Amino acid sequence: MPGKKVTDIENVHKAALLASRGETPRDIAGILRVSEPTVSRLLRDARDKKVLTLECNLPPSEIRALEVSLQPEKLRKHLDHIAGTKKHRLKNVKVVDTLRLDRTMLGQVFAAEVARYLLNYVFPKSKQLGVAWGENLFRISQEVHQQLKGSDFQERLNVFPVVGDPPQVGRTPEWSASNIAALLDSAFNGNQVHENSLTGVAASVPEEYLEEEVKAIFKFFREIAPYDEVFGGRKPGLVDRIDCFLTGVGTTASKNNPLFGANSKGALQKFLKRTTFGNIGGIFLKRPNLSPKDASRLDALGERWTGIQLKHVEKLARRSSEKNQPGVVVVANSGKREVVEQCVRLGLINQLIANTTLSAEILAPRPRR
């Protein structure tokens, strides 16, 4: 985690634990981000201090704490391997320990830890913050609002939604990007009225609408001042100046899907499950080797998406890897392994905040195909 200095004794203990679990010196060097000669010295010190004999001789509570502290390093090493050198844009990994929490406390503790991380390491480097939607982001925005009370945080951020309202927004309006942006705008800037609200702008136009109807809807949206301000038209939009995109990732489960409306009967869900890895901020990621028919249908669905585009996310992720900007910050929990890994392969994530369950899912050995 950025900003935290690891003491030598911590690395001695970590190296001892990893060695006792069968990791090679080369693997330990990659996880701890030190040289192999340094690993040799750490293991020698561990043996001298009787921390490492045939196994790690630390108290169980300390071993547990070390395992938790090693999660980000292990996850980062694994994802670096997935990304390769061409798309290596992942800068930071944060893992929130949620394994021993009661289910009723899980969301609250996760949100509080993520908010703390964002306030310490992400938001101070941002000036133009775009946000997506979702329950996680809503809870995090509430925690940010709470933690900022009485704090000495001085940054003023321009906060704006980058997606419209999902079809199910009537059931959970507080999860919308516009509401989340309004909460953060109030927290950072004290504004009671959020000027760039996209409330009333549909996130996507359903497939049932004819092409002419879709064009008319988009023409109408572009006449809405906040939509024009965020996405541009007469001039470049805020998405062209964004330096931090706070988002989740979604699977093709209906509750996470920005294209499922009340009229969906499951056919679209099955199609997307077969043809995509899921979505980042509502943008679906194609599986390889699709038939021309399937690829054409996915492209048509993408043209009905009214929010931030893949080109904006790619540009921000690339710029962040070259500059001191937060970039694309993804918050994800269990069940999101496949879509997170694909985002990393495509170079779409600069900072990943995950819980321990997702980290374990990603690190779990998989049978070779």
Task: Give a short summary of the structure.
With 369 residues, this protein is an alpha/beta fold. The protein has 14 helices and eight strands.
Number of distinct beta strands: 8
Q: For the report, how would you describe the main beta sheet?
A: 8 strands, mixed
How many domains, in number, for the residues? 2
Order of helices and strands: HHHHEHEHEHHHEHEEHHEHEH
Low-confidence stretches: none
Helix content: 40-55%
Tell me the β content. 5-15%
Name the assembly state: single chain
Radius of gyration: 22 Å
The CATH class of the largest domain is identified as: Alpha Beta
pLDDT average, as an integer?
A: 86
Secondary-structure class: alpha/beta
**What is the CATH fold-level name of the largest domain?**
Rossmann fold
CATH architectural category of the largest domain: 3-Layer(aba) Sandwich
Distance between the termini: 34 Å
Shape, per Cα inertia axes: globular
Number of helices: 14
